[in-house]
Amino acid sequence: MIFARAERRALRAAGGIALGFVLAFVGVATVVLLSHADGAGAPLLDAYTWRVARFTLLQATLSTVLSILLAIPVARALARQRAFPGRVWLLRLSAVPLGLPALVAALGIVEIWGRQGVVNDLLRLAGLASPVSVYGLTGILIAHVFFNMPLAARLMLAALDRIPAEYWLTAANLGMGGGATFRLIEWPVIRRVIPGIAGLVFMLCAASFTIVLTLGGGPAATTIEVAIYQALRFDFDPPRAVLLAFLQIAVTASLLSLGTLLGRPPEEGMTAGRAIRRFDGRRRRPADALVLVLFTLFTAAPLAATVASGLAADFGRLALDPLLHRALVTSLAISFSSASLSLAIALPIVLVPPLAGAADSGTATRLMARALPAMGSLILLVPPVVVATGWFLVLRPFGETGRFAPAVITVINAMMALPFVVRVLEPAYRTHLARTARLALSLGVTGRHRLRWIDLPALRKPFLTAFAFAMALSLGDLGAVAIFGAEGFVTLPWLLFSRMASYRTADAAGIALVLGVLCLLLTLPSTAADRRRQGPADA
Amino acid sequence: MPDIAIRLSGVTVRFAEKQLSFDCAIPEGAAVAVAGPSGAGKSTLFNVIAGFETPATGSVTLLGKDMAGRDPADRPVSIVFQDNNLFAHLSVADNVGLGIDPSLRLDAAARQRVFAALSRVGLGGHERRLPGPLSGGERQRVALARALVRRRPILLLDEPFAALDPAMRAEMAKLLSELTAETGSTMLFITHQPEDIRRLAERVIFLEDGAIVLDEPAEDFLSRRAPPAVARFLGHGPV
């Protein structure tokens, strides 16, 4: 019994509202999709659809394999070299892609790997005639590796850092060489975390929209999500969009059930105990330095290119562009409201399940305690583009869909952020409850007062982290906007996308810099704090 | 007069906030207890001998050879820690086998040696098991079996009994003195228990504030009433 009676009533009501709202929002979209599926079917399951489905899985598989294979040497080098100038900055750099909007990253990658980019300049210098093309499968893979390889490397590094310090001393005392160290110590640990990481990366890549939209080349390199967008916005072919939407749900559903088999991605919490010292570090220094320099170049070059070409943009003119002002205001308003909504929906998801622990909790409470967390991940099953498609079809009969765009996009963005928000708040709240719940109840500090004096002060930091993450996610989102994008409704990513599409590259670079800096300002403080936290909450 | 197994002369180790210095000569075949308050430098002394720590000055001579520039694996030293001596994902036999070949390529004769060492420490039949389900005492005995097959003349034990209950401590001590008698190894062990000294040690090295303050036969040490740190250690003095 950790809540007063009135508190329990209020929480149950909040849970019911949140559940009803989200289910209705997704439900309406799905029902409308189903009703439009009339007449769709066999003739639409044509060669094109299959090719799109095949490519979706192919690029996701290759992206996952590449990200994991390349992350292993990076993680090993970082684990081995424990003290060199700039190690902390390298770790911070590896957290940057996570907080960067996909569109900004795509632009940076084109600057480096594109026809006019540094890589092709070097290749031409080396005497190679035919340049590497960044559009198509190659570009998609580069971008996905850019996003996911540093993430995989960080998660592997955390696993390697959890190896007991004595192992390294024993290995040095026994005289294990590099090969034996990998085979007997490192690989068994890495092998255990690979399924979880691979599941996560595959899921992210299979549902990748922006990267494929900007770097994919034509029908040969299109994923289901992008095909939905094209069917809806270019071919005006709702039945095909509906069919593709269901294909996408089928794919994510099977991936999610596969994911439960593979297990959750590993936590990043750090180990306590004896400080780790690696005696194989000295011998491997040149090789590790090479790996880490290549890693730094690969990760930092697109960022540097974004900054460099962004700074070269004509900011004086951009600053006076009324369209940019409107986009900025719209984006900030949408991201602020969607982050607020996301937190409001997340609260019952986090608060209600502990209610069900009480012996006298009713069936309804227990059902709700199970349904709410599942609801938090609903957007993984029904991706944003699919929900947006449903609502596009709902609202079309009511005239210009652009009018409703802000509301729908706000809700979709809030749901996109929900899994992250819950993952930040849930462990923090669980720890907080274990520390304070009984004491607060015995003192009679309940309801409003408990919220005011006990819960909010203690949970301010995870709240801010979750809010900032949700806001950044919404700020950088292109998927939902692309489906609804209309004259008179412009967000920053949409403006950036249309400037890129109309080859106004200088403007695009300037906008990308603004967007990238905004998102990093929101996400970097929390990822830096994440590394400092020494994980008692995760233990 | 036996030869000197371990000689530290003018060895200093510098850390950010303090400096440690070690001078000692330990005869071959001796069983030496290393004692002293927490933070006195006991583990650092072991790290210097094992090659995990490079001294700023002075020389480390093991069995008459200067150890400057020698990797931990190239020193005549085996080391056993309080915990985590065994790789949890490798079988007991593989953990011991690493003492013969660190890349674990073992022929039939090597396997035979592993089996013999395990039955010597009383763990015959446990070869294929993983370390996880074993008791703390059993895990320590596996680590001893590995030291046995490595055949290094110097054995360093960093609080080998700390995680064991009293009955197991006595058993381990008995096994250790038998093993060192058989192999003629020089053994140093860190301990916080006067009991372990009574059971096992011929000599005692006592450290305080980063220096060796006493190096004497065990019976002399055990009858001391001073200095205060020693009295506290032995449980005589005011706490």
Largest interface: A-B, 21 and 23 residues
The oligomeric state is heterodimer
Content-based structural category of chain A: mainly alpha
Low-confidence segments of chain B, given as residue ranges, are: none
Helix share bin of chain B: 25-40%
Q: What separation lies between the terminal Cα atoms of chain A?
A: 24 Å
The largest sheet of chain B is: 6 strands, mixed
Any idea what the shape of chain B is? Answer: globular
Organism (chain A): Shinella pollutisoli
Subunit structure (chain A): The complex is composed of two ATP-binding proteins (ThiQ), two transmembrane proteins (ThiP) and a solute-binding protein (ThiB).
Transmembrane segments (chain A): 12-37, 57-78, 90-113, 125-147, 193-221, 241-262, 287-312, 332-359, 371-392, 404-425, 463-486, 506-524
Domain ABC transmembrane type-1 (chain A): 53-257, 328-526
Written overview of the protein:
Chain A has 539 residues and is an all-alpha fold. Chain A folds into 2 domains: 1-35 and 314-527, MetI-like fold (Orthogonal Bundle); 38-305, MetI-like (MetI-like fold), CATH 1.10.3720.10. Helix content of chain A is 76%, strand content 0%. Chain A contains 22 helices and no strands. Chain A has helices spanning 5-36, 47-80, 87-99, 102-113, 118-125, 137-161, 165-174, 178-206, 210-215, 224-233, 238-262, 285-312, 315-319, 322-351, 363-376, 378-381, 384-395, 405-443, 447-476, 479-484, 492-501, 505-532. In chain A, helix 3 (87-99) crosses helix 6 (137-161), helix 11 (238-262) packs antiparallel against helix 17 and helix 21 (492-501) packs across helix 22 (505-532). Chain B is 33% helix and 25% strand. Chain B is built from 8 helices and 10 strands. In chain B, a hairpin with a 4-residue loop joins strand 1 and strand 2. Chain B is globular and about 50 Å long. At the A-B interface, helix 7 and helix 8 of A face strand 6 of B. Chain A: It comes from Shinella pollutisoli. Chain A: Belongs to the binding-protein-dependent transport system permease family. Chain A: Residues 53-257, 328-526 form the ABC transmembrane type-1 domain. Chain A: This is Thiamine transport system permease protein ThiP. Chain A: It is found in: Cell inner membrane; Cell membrane.
